[in-house]
Amino acid sequence: MKQKNIIQIIILFFVIAALGFVIYNTQQKIAAQNISSGFDFLQDEASFEISESLIEYSSFDTYKKALTVGLLNTLKVSILGNILALLLGILIGISLLSQNILLKKLCQSYVEIMRNTPLLLQLFFWYAIMNSLLPAPQEAISFAGTFFSNRGISIPWFEFSSFSWSYPKFKSFNFEGGYTLSLEFVALLFGLVVYTSAFIAEIVRAGLLSVQKGQWEASKTLGLSAWQSIRFVIFPQALRVAIPPLTSQILNLTKNSSLAVAIAFPDFVSVANTTMNQTGQALEVILLILLVYLTFSLLTAAFMNWYNKKISLVER
Predict the structure, then answer these.
(1) Packing angle between helix 282-311 and helix 63-95, nearest 10 degrees?
(2) Is residue 11 part of a domain?
(3) Is 295 in contact with 78 (CB distance < 8 Å)?
(4) I need a labelling partner for 66 at 20 to 30 A (CA). Which of 99, 142, 155, 291 fits?
(5) Between 235-256 and 183-210, two packed helices, what is the crossing angle to 10 degrees?
(6) Residue 205's CATH number
(7) Euclidean distance between the first and final Cα of the chain, in Å?
(8) What angle do CA 71, 63, 181 make, to 5 degrees?
């Protein structure tokens, strides 16, 4: 036991020494290039526009606010993406066990195609398809007060300032009023959802199959329909098996949202890259990116672990 502790102390010493060496060399390199270190640049004027923002922003605002805008955009696509991917994945996962051969084969094909195609390629594909098939704003497709065009999706929006609904209306070259989801956001969200839902579907299918056959038969004996059996008997048991791998998929979708830069959606990584190019504060910006995604991962993992313990069986 003592020998094991000594080995751990030695390893820890070398890790700390290596980290100190890296920090010292980095400081020396920065000083040699006359680059100021620190995060004071966050208070400087950003001087660049951001096409989509949940809060008021202009190029006269600081880098700090610009990064906040990017962070909120990342949260928006991650939260919506995870909710939709879970719903679609669960639906497809249940359909994979359907007695309807056509539905089962369609879902199997969907899962195989989406899982075996690179996400980045899918994002390019969906963005190109939407950009080419959707009409210009002047000829936008209208449905229930919502307009679909190659500028995005304009939807009715409740404005708390006036405490009333705002509806999109076409004026001049674009829509005014309501809230417009940019084409880049829609393509990114759609790509992340269909890609991640394929993995979630397989997890759900495996979870359902892990439930003993007797549980299915018992639910039928009670007179429950197939839907009621899955909802009240089978799925709650399958969830205990599915939660750990589902956690990984939720984390993957959040991290994969950083590919937004490829289709020009201003997420946190995209705004951070612009900030880094303008300020030259590469080390500080990269540290911010690492810190943000590490925080996302830790919070998500902590919540899912708490939920997993809550629904797990307590052994006596």
Answers:
(1) 40
(2) no
(3) no
(4) 155
(5) 150
(6) 1.10.3720.10
(7) 32
(8) 40
Angle between helices 183-210 and 119-133 (to 10 degrees): 130
Total structural domains in the chain? 1
Classify 155 in phi/psi space as left (phi over 0), alpha (psi -120 to 50) or beta: beta
Q: Are 110 and 221 in contact (CB under 8 A)?
A: no
**What is the H or E stretch that residue 182 is in?**
strand 179-182
Does residue 262 lie within any of the structural domains? yes
Alpha-carbon distance 309 to 316, whole Å? 15
Residue 284: give the domain boundaries.
Answer: 63-311
**Residue 263 and residue 184 in contact, taking contact as beta carbons nearer than 8 Å:** yes
45, part of any domain: no
Residues counted in the chain? 316
Model-level pTM? 0.85
Q: How far is CA 225 from CA 97, 217, 219, 228, 229, in A?
A: 15, 11, 8, 5, 6
What are the structure tokens assigned to 126, written together?
A: 């969906």
Task: Please give the chain's pLDDT, 316 residues, in tens.
Answer: 567 678 888 888 888 888 888 777 876 776 676 666 778 889 999 999 998 888 999 999 999 999 999 999 999 999 999 999 999 999 999 999 888 999 999 999 999 999 999 999 999 999 999 999 999 888 888 888 888 998 888 988 888 777 788 888 888 777 888 888 999 999 999 999 999 999 999 999 999 888 888 887 888 788 887 778 888 888 888 888 899 999 999 999 999 999 999 999 999 999 999 999 998 888 899 999 999 999 999 999 999 989 888 877 655 4
Give the Cα separation of 89 and 86 in Å (integer).
Answer: 5
